[in-house]
Amino acid sequence: MRKPLELAVVGSGVAGLYAAITAVEHGHRVTLLTKDALADSNSWYAQGGIAAVGPRGTSRGDQVASHIEDTLTAGARLNDPAAVRALCSSAWGHIEALMALGTDFDAEPSGEHPALGLEAAHTHARILHAGGDSTGKVIASALIDLCRRLAGQGRLEILEHAFVTDLVDDAGVVTGLRYLQGAEAIRLEADVVLLATGGIGSLYGWTTNPAGATGDGAALAWRAGALMVDAEFVQFHPTLVRAGRFMVSEAVRGEGAILIDGDGHRFMTGVHPAAELAPRDVVARAIHHVHATGGQVFLDARAVEDAKGQGYLARRFPSITTRLAALGLDLAAAPVPVTEAQHYWMGGVHADGCGRTTVPGLRVAGEAACTGTHGANRLASNSLLEALVHGFGAASSLGADDAGEACTPTAIDYVFELSDGATDPAAAPLSLEGLQELATARLGVERTGEGLAKAVATLTAAPSGPGARTREEAELGHLITVGRLIAEAALARTTSIGAHYRTDAPPPTAAPRRVRTGFVRATRTPTPDTSAGTGSNDLLLTGSPNP
Ligand code: SIN
């Protein structure tokens, strides 16, 4: 027998929307809060699609086992294998659920099967897409429509422009939250708070994320005492068009577009056997190297148009084509200048398959969560899928007597305690621009121990806690918290693996140590312990700090 609960869902991306709908269907009373409008989410901008293998959408020879293997390979096998199996094997069920809700995935010309795209590090074409290159928007729209209908029936309360400032805590148990709506500060009681607040892109100068990606969920959960894991793993997307601050989907390279430098040289063939479809971290680093030596990088899709016929790119990628046209650019006619940019955070709030964190009453789903699914580097088009699978898992397991095997937490090898650090009153306050400059230089595609130690020192001294007077101040504080967690974790991991690349590390070996680390906020008086070696006053709880 399931007990009906009061659930507060924070965030209106695919994870939050799907969780809210699922919880309503399971008889819970749900309030869905979002800091802007419902459509203002990272999911809305997802172009490429959703990876899924199923009977109605299967490339020749593809199977769920291949999707699992590709996810593990992209993640440098730092993934939790059980979480990956759960993700890939439940994928098709969620695709069918979306279809039933009215999501029209693009179909092959016969209309019988979904059209499947290819993206980096996938061994088979298995990416379902919608609206050509508007997959996130099409899915989120269908979910928003349903949420609005449920709200119209009085089964769901939607609070837009409600910025969550704090979680309410009673003896270590989350019992609600406080939010700002306009100038009014309001308290909402809840049996469970589910954070689905998305990514952290605004930490960096160049990102594919919208400006609202300010790590709110991670910072709120951190303050509440939740375990944070895999923070060092930040993914950079290879092809952002700086002039318009928008991403050109990897699906364009999946169709055959190549990367060239200013001399027209196709440089990726010399970097990786899969060339432009190498794992994202490899491509982003290669582009970074061209830029670091003063060169330029272009995405060249002219041969795709030549091979597939005039107008193909505009039909397959209508939104990208329109946005490029507004900048006077045309993929079919000329190479388009691109750059690497922050895209996704594999790290986040430690969560099991039911979204449960280490803090009772607090659940998390989507990019804010770290379920162990992505390992050291997320496979393309696994993020909307994770949002669905874990948004569903977090909501469908609520109030169940027996959470079951799916709720088994993913294992963490080392956990460090991190004190808040003493804010330096003499230090100049860190502006958003200053923070982005620091993160781009020191927490970016390539890192060094020296740069990370400096980042830790600056971020530990910068005010990041509660007490912010405005939403902007609070968001800056959230980003400083996330930046510090990334810096500490990246400093602690002295070898390169996946998206974490240290130029001062020994060259990656065939068998890097696959250990995962986490941090919890110290609740006792900080004791400086330099032997922990992570540059600030953190205490080593278990094991060695140098995985
Ligand atoms: C893209 O379309 O290139 C992004 C897809 C993803 O991040 O999974």
The N- and C-terminal alpha carbons lie at a distance of 44 Å
What's the quaternary structure here? Answer: single chain
Structural shape:
globular
* Main beta-sheet strand count, sense and barrel state: 6 strands, mixed
Low confidence ranges: 525-547
CATH structural class of the domain at 409-539: Mainly Alpha
Output the strand order for the largest sheet: 20-18-11-22-21-23
Describe the structure in brief.
The protein is α/β, with parallel strands linked by helices and 547 residues long. It is built from 14 helices and 23 strands.
Explain what this protein looks like in three dimensions.
About 30% of the residues lie in helices and about 20% in strands. By secondary structure, the protein is an alpha/beta fold. Among the domains are: about 235-340, Flavocytochrome C3, Chain A, domain 1 (Alpha-Beta Complex), CATH 3.90.700.10; about 410-540, Methane Monooxygenase Hydroxylase, Chain G, domain 1. It has a 6-stranded mixed β-sheet with strand order 20-18-11-22-21-23, with helices on one face. The chain has a 5-stranded parallel β-sheet with strand order 6-2-1-10-19. Helix 12 (about 430-440) packs parallel to helix 14. It is globular and about 65 Å long. The structure holds succinic acid.
